[in-house]
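User: Fold this; tokens only.

Assistant: Input:
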Amino acid sequence: MKQIKVAITDDHPMVLAGLSQLLDSCDNIAVQATYTSGGALLEGLKQQRPDVLLLDVLLPDHSGEELARMVTADYPDVRILVITSVDTNFHIRRMLQQGCMGYLLKNADREMLLDAINAVYAGEQYITASLKEQLLQDVLQTRKVAHPQVMLTRREKEILQLIAREFTSPEIADKLFLSLRTVENHRKHLLAKFDVKNMIGLVRKALDMGLVE
């Protein structure tokens, strides 16, 4: 029986120890490495690549979304299974959009964890039933809400897409050959048009309206 090589990234040593101990008892799974930060993970992947990466959403130096995007781009054969305490629909959708194959909460039992690892390793998506239902209800609720149409200029659409990809204002200015002041003015206009208070609210509303991916 081929062993599934697993790496774990979590900034809590007790979580790493618990997951490692649990998985070490499985004949078909070998814990290849553990990492306490995104930086350590990226360095480790240069030396050895697991079959399945268990990844937390919240890390001290990189967001889980950023790491997922980098890993799937540079190491497409590594399957990512999110294991986290974060259960918001926003984070679930964003992690799946970045190529993660599964999403599991840290309160899952041993059987569910093993099922998730085996499913992801086989190329299947794994999301617990409760989270699937939560996502479905969110979609249905969103469809019930009639969003007023937001008219955007071509430039506003470009800037909105870059904001959703976590570009900073200086980075947007550099990419679009605009002044920093112009970018900041566009940001203010977008907040006003979407009737939100900050960039998080802007991205969430734009996602709900299907204006960004």
